[in-house]
Specification:
Elements lengths: L2 E6 L11 H6 L1 H14 L3 H7 L2 H5 L1 H23 L6 E6 L3 H8 L5 H21 L2 E7 L3 H11 L2 E7 L2 E7 H13 L4 E4 L12 H12 L22 H13 L4 H10 L2 E7 L4 H9 L4 E5 L2 H5 L8
Parallel strand pairs: 1-2, 1-7, 7-8
Antiparallel strand pairs: 3-5, 3-6, 4-5
Amino acid sequence: MTQCAWVFPGQGSQVVGMGRDLYDNVPAARAAIDAADEALGLPLSDLFFNGPEDDLRQTINAQPALVTVAYACLAAARELNGANLPRPAFLAGHSLGEYTALAVAGVIDFPAAVRLARERGRLMHEAGQKRAGAMAAVLGLDEDNLAGICRETETVMANVNCPGQIVISGAAANIAKAMEKATAAGASRVVALQVSGAFHSPLMVPAVEGMKQYLDATEFKTPAIPVVGNVTGRPLADGAAVRKELIDQLTNPVQWQRTIEYMLDNGVTTFIEIGPGRVLTGLIRRINKEATTINIGDLAAVEGLGKPAAG
């Protein structure tokens, strides 16, 4: 029997104007976006509808904005085209996207997910201010070779995204050395990322204590739909496992390839990326060319559910 998974994007997928067509046309999406503004006590929607882009890109804004718009995309899909939205056997989110997945799974309510994403973004940004960090995407180099380079340069692998695409993280000077070594070792491309810190690395330790306080004050229920965690690449069994995952996730790599492989091994053949952009679709296709991928990121995509996909 074929199975479906819903996956939710992380930071970097934000774009000015996202969610506007859903807000203007779908009451369920409007209600979700209004609820996020109310939860934060500020007009976040004005920022992601209208910009400026530099402000939206800031971690403290991008993270709650993406949780909001991804959740609104799902709300719109359920309202307008729910009959053509396959029920998921699993949920997963890439880094920040895990908060959206947890809200969809009923582990936390949506306003709590938005507030936690805002605090996560703030704490990660502040950790980045304490010690200059950087990240870079390395393409075309295998995991074993890159692991050796990371050891030599005191950097870490932050995102193991798919075969031939790994993101490294660490102190800015060390990342510069690692980029040089990766190029010399035969990487097809090495790209510095526009981020405010060394995410998913030990440089995020200053964010851990503050985040732990917010998580300890939040009730986490057992997932109603299995959520496959970033750190382990395995389903999170209960609320305690979720809380541990969200702390560990700050300083440990996102094992996205292993997450997708786990779902593939457990019968998933179709992945629906819910939220802005097509980043996860691209990664999934590199992990398994046979997988069916669908994107729900705007009104046209919601209305097109159930129709044959192009490409």
